[in-house]
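tool=predict chain=A
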Amino acid sequence: MENNIPEKILDKITKIQIVPRGTICNFITYYELLKKWNPKINLVAKSTLDDFWNRHLLDSLQLCKYVENASDKILIDLGSGAGFPGMVLAMMGFLEVHLIESDQRKCAFLNEVVRETKTKAEVHSQRIENNLSKGNIVTARALSPLNELLAMSEDKLLPGGECLFLKGEQWQQEIEQAKKDFSFDCTAHESVTDKNSRVLQIKNIKKV
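tool=predict ok
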């Protein structure tokens, strides 16, 4: 596979948002760094690395559809891992981005991506519950069941803030389970990368 972004992925990206050429170059640098680091610390499943552009980049980038005026927003990314979706969204120009990850090796990778791409993001090497960052948007991908994510997010949202969570085919069951512990407003948007997955846009979280 060539290092350039496949044409069909570029077409899908432009349907979501116009991406500057410099940002496209940063995506390519990100991919190269991931290929270099992944054999050492297993950032993503090896089987998904060749599908980076769709499985990881586009899947993360689609969250831009649900954020207005990103350059005025503070983003908190929970359990950032290899940086999806937080690092991808940081490259899209949020006012402030906080990537929270407890694994120091993964934090080293995230900091390398920040340096190499000159992305504006702060990497926090600590557990989520110990981090005091607050933002307008909280994101997470492949981290925990929804009820646990809501518990993690509750004290990290500024007034009027919302969560954007990427969820797989069990998303409906997760919503029903979460309703036992929380009340919230949720819109489930169909994923652009998997018809069985959803982007859960959640507001007004309260414990019941």
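The chain has a mean pLDDT of 95. The chain has eight helices and seven strands.
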